[in-house]
Amino acid sequence: MHARSRATAFFFLFSALFFSVTAAGQYILNTPDGRVVQLLPDGTWRYLPKEDASGKEQAGRKPGARYLSRFKRYAVAYDPSEWNCDTSSTGEADSFDATFRSKDGALTASLSDSRLALPLDELEASVREQWRGTGTILSYTPFPDTINGLPGAGYYLELAYGGVTYRYRAFIYSTLKGSLYFVLGTQKEIFDEDRKRIDRLFAGITKL
Predict the structure, then answer these.
(1) What one-character-per-residue DSSP string does 76-105 give?
(2) Which residues of 60-92 are buried (b: 16+ CB within 10 A; e: fewer)?
């Protein structure tokens, strides 16, 4: 199959998987700078808050976790008090690496680190084709997006399905060496209410 066709097919499959998706052992390590890190079963990690002599947590320090992508090229820092990170599909062919779900179950985001490039010049056509049989596209708004120095492409999509309007935000970074695709979606009303939480999750994307 032609490389461009494979990349487009991968994009379709990834988006379809995302739409259809709407822990025990752990290790504690000390870093050289004195911080305490907890390694979680899903491959992510988070800093544990330090305690003072009275046993109270230090003020101002929030717990954090970081997900490392399949090929260890990207990371997503997130607040485990707001998000669950599911990596059960990692390693399966043509699947997303991780799914982030808000604790209340209202927001779902998925990430894929692929060795295939995504044809950004055909992004809108690819998106519209993929969603064509799923619902009615009400709007598609592309925009250039740079997150933590990583220049990419973003888009907002509104889709009507079953009498409900859904809103999606996506970030795509692509080179000839591969691509990162990160997309989040939920009901339009919830998207508007939780915009700050959504922005914080996107702001956690970094290239390693």
Answers:
(1) EEE-TTTEEEE-TTTTSTT--SEEEEETTS
(2) eeeeebbbbbbeebbbbbbbbeebebbbeebee
Q: Is residue 74 predicted with pLDDT exceeding 50? A: yes
Give me the residue label for tokens 């690819």. 126
Over 70: is that where the pLDDT of 91 sits?
A: no
The C-alpha atoms of residue 125 and residue 117 are separated, in whole angstroms, by 16
Domain 3-207 has CATH 3.40.1000.10: yes
Provide the pairing of β-strand 36-39 with 108-114.
Answer: unpaired
Supply the pLDDT for residue 32. Answer: 54
Whether the per-residue pLDDT at 10 is higher than 90: the answer is no
Find the length of the chain: 208
Residues 26-50, mean pLDDT to the nearest whole number: 59
Cβ burial, residue 39 (10 Å; 0-12/13-18/19+): middle
Q: What DSSP designation does 121 have?
A: G
pTM of the model: 0.71
